[in-house]
Amino acid sequence: MKKRDFGTIIQIGDVLVSEDVVMEFFSCDYEKCKGCCCIIGDSGAPLEESELEPLEQHYPTYSPLMSEAGRKAVDEKGFFEIDRDGDLVTPVVPGREECAYTHFDGQGNCLCAIERCFFQGSCSFRKPISCQLYPIRVVKMGGNTVGLNLHRWDICKDAYEKGKKEKVRVYEFLREPLTQAFGEEFYSALSEAARMLIASS
After folding, report:
1. Which of 144, 133, 151 is nearest to 190 (CA)?
2. Do 66 and 102 lie in a common domain?
3. Domain match, 15 and 49 both
4. Of the residues 96, 127, 158, which one is the last residue of a structural domain?
């Protein structure tokens, strides 16, 4: 671990983890937010190049759960678009901020059409890893090095409060996607570094 002016940085191999990821509390409170992170934002969710093929491959399975506007956006833009920073992101519905892959259940809830099919067992691709990792954002820093930073968003204020009540920290809440993205050894090392950092705080 390295102490910087802006906080401690945990380095595990080529991954740099900001202090907030292990010190901050977080637990999604879907009952309050209703999945609004899928329909609010400046652009779509970040995508990895490896995710483009499964997005297209499984489209016939999950597209029936998408809104008509979402399907039209994919027809016009394709399965991804390039945002103003030059990054690959999910397409958004023109004139709105919602992800094209959003599913509305008719009761005011926003869900991911892809993930709905995954849980139904009809799709092997769950959803973009950036969505699974939220509120962590992965930043490419050159070479093979990446940084894991905590993204703070007002719409998630209830999730931070719920995390404090349940005593669940960000890295604990995101154990499954962190392990999926970086491996079991990484998560074990992160947990040990977190234990040491919390004990010394």
Report:
1. 133
2. yes
3. no
4. 127
pLDDT tens digits for 114-170?
999 999 999 999 999 999 999 999 998 888 899 999 998 888 899 999 999 999 999
Distances in Å between the alpha carbon of 122 and those of 80, 109, 114? Answer: 22, 21, 10
21 and 44: one domain? no
Q: How many domains does the chain have?
A: 2
Is 123 in the same domain as 140? Answer: no
For residues 163 and 52, give the distance between their C-alpha atoms in angstroms, rounded to a whole number. 33
pTM of the full structure? 0.88
- Per residue in 78-97, pLDDT (tens digit) is 999 999 889 999 999 988 88
List the domain range (segments joined by +) for residue 42: 34-127
pLDDT, position 29? 87
Same domain, 40 and 84: yes
Cα angle, residue 58 at apex, residues 64 and 130 outer, rounded to 5°: 100
Judge if 112 and 168 occupy the same domain: no
Tell me, yes or no, whether 98 and 142 share the same domain.
Answer: no
Angle, helix 175-182 to helix 184-200, in steps of 10 degrees: 130
**Sheet with 146-150: strands ordered across:** 2-4, 7-12, 15-18, 146-150, 136-140
